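Q: Two folds, back to back.
A: First:
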Amino acid sequence: MKKNIFLKSVILLLIGGFITKIISMFIKIVLARLIGTEGMGIYMLISPTFVMLMALAQLGFPVAISKLVAEDNKNNKNLVFSVIPISLALNIIIIILLFLTASFISHNLLNEDRCYWAIICIGFVLPFISISSILRGYFFGKQQMLPHVLSNVTEDIVRLIAIIIGIPIFLKLGLEYAVAFIVLTNVISELTSIFVLFFFIPKNFKITKQDLKPNKSNTKEVFSIGIPTTMSRIIGSIGAFLEPIILTYGLIKSGYTNNFIVNEYGVINGYVMPLILLPSFFTGAISQALIPNISKAHSQKHYKYVWNKIKFAIFISLLIGIPATLIFELIPDIPMKLIYNTTVGINYIKVLAPIALLHYIQAPLTASLQAMGKAKEAMQGTLIGTIIRTITLLILCFSHIGLWALVWATGINIVIVTLHQYKHVKKTLQI
């Protein structure tokens, strides 16, 4: 029965992942054609900031809730809904700090004043992302993947429509306002997602005032899981946040123009990386299915079952990843031309494609560590990888190799983190 539930979860998430990825690719195609390389460059400059703030705003609550609900020993109503007020209070603090520092971030750190309004708009998005992720954590814990899949699909459809309608209007005001609007579309898409998720909440799941009051025991457990998970994401996000700052500073000192940096950065993070990491979306879906399944099995000391599930996840990840890697390595111009109507960045793709194969199995390994209560070990891997990546990037920026500094630093990070997570998974299971 456990096997059937897991397989159904994986299949449903893969189907949902495939649909949402197609829609996401359409979104990227529309964005690339509407705002161009320069607009994509501006958007990619603020993306690390966006990702870091999302990690901070969510505080690892989705993973913690998923794990605790899966173990089935808690008051699920209180566990889920008592976290929402805490999350919203945290979001308010983050938003205030963001509004106060937006000008400094755009002007002094990113060296691009056109990022200002996009950074401001991030603040409006964060509370909605936090609430939808908490609700998703509950359904993951129950191993009910349909609400997650449907909410993701509807969310992306709504966002695509909003982008198609809104960007031409905001482009008349200026490129920076169009980029800000792209960020703001997440508000309406996340609201759609929340509506869909609430539709699937059981009818007898009536929310009372008592359910909204934090329970000391529940809160303690959520934070004990959530904080290490968040730290892992934040460490990675800090590295991503520092990335454009280090690149801009180092490459300008090396004689490159700001315009060159923005355009090439847009090529790598707007075209190359989304294409290379396309299979990781599906491996991420497998990882989501793993957390509740492994959490329950590991708590019952079914270690052989856990290892078999991890091996299966790695197998599926490679089954998807190897064909994709061969395509990216041998004929990268075809998917680039087909998706983006351009062939820029092909040389970057050929270097990153083989290394990305390791990235495809990284997500299941990290999810497994979190599910087994080893979030600190997962965080440790991210920390080591981020430190080495940042140092490598800083050194290579002054080596007069342009944006190849980012490519090589990214590759080194993928190798280090994946090997670390694999080592600690085997150590935890004493294999």
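A: Second:
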Amino acid sequence: MLLTKSTTFIIGPVATLLGYIMNGIFWVQSQIGIESIGLCIILFTIVIYMLLMPLTIKQQKFSKLQSKMNPELQAIQKKYKDKRQDQAAMMKMNEETQAVYQKYGVNPMGSCLQLIIQMPILFALYRVIWNIPAYVGTVKNAFLPLAQALMNVSGAQDFMAEIASKNAVSFKEMTELTLIDVLYKFKPENWSALLKQFPDLSSLITSTQGDVDRMNYFLGLNIADSPASIFQTAIAAGSVLMIIAALLVPVLSALTQWLNTKLMSTQNDTQPTSGGAADTMAATMKSMNVMMPIMSAVFCFTLPVGMGIYWIIGAVVRSIQQLVVNKHIDKMDIDEVIKKNEEKQKKKLIKAGIDPNTVNKNATMNTRNVAAPSQKTSMASRANANTNHLSQEEKDEAVKKSTEYYNKNNAKPGSLASKANMVKQYNEKNNS
């Protein structure tokens, strides 16, 4: 294990991969003489979100198609609103809903899939930024000589364990790797205490602190320290400039997060709701859009400045992406996208032995019938009128013949293919 790299399932390997990217970015910076971890975090964040751009576009496409499908889906829900306790009716509702999704060539889990893919990436990204020396070799090497020296000094373990406890750093046993973890979280007063405790290492301590400060400080702030700690230190020192700098991180985080949620909600507001659960969900989303910026500010005030930089830059990049993607999606011919999706779905249905025309007709017919209940009622009335003059024996015979007709060459009972064939046979029978 190299330093305290994450070994969590999925997140660990993803964090290692992201660490290679960050290490590469920092190496390029070193070649041009800019060894700034803050700048590295900014560039790293931009690169990661650019790599996630295809998923963002796909998710927005799904949202746009969802808005097109919503009227039909809402009609189906309205149709079965009063039949929630009827299992057969619920199965029928699910079948009709699935038919609409097939008609548009959309996977109902499409949006969830994007989130599932992104979640481990984002968690791994936090891990990399949280403990940069574990993933960036140049930063690790800056601490390594001092860590090696402390391993051979009496009393170093107890001293470093005490500082680790104050800085909320795990320190179960003293190794070169765990020492580097603690040293990376050092505050100015910790360096002074270390120098006082081990004067024989003064030269090494001073040079290490100088190298670390050169890499860690960004716009006057130590990225390994939290704005809350910086704020307390600034209050004690009476430094107004440092107070402003410490508060600037959470404030900017809240503002950029608010901008990002505003752009996302603007996109989602184009999608109609059907009342009930849909309206409740919309209200919940609006509440979250208010709470997220506040939570972002609180987190960024207590977490290291490096995490705050990532949060701010991430929100800015997402906002720019949202503007670009929205503009791209608005220019797209959604009807053409739907047509292409329908063609793909037709090929799948044909391969499965299902007539795609009957499936599409079934989906369209269901929603049309829902939208025109009076027409449906009149059709039923005419059907009843046509059979009222028949005797009971004649009615039974007609039912038998009709059942035999619809069971002819039928697929597995209850399957989608079976229902599609029944629609086809109905049309053939009534048009003959």
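Q: And?
A: Confidence is low (pLDDT under 50) at residues 270-278, 367-383.
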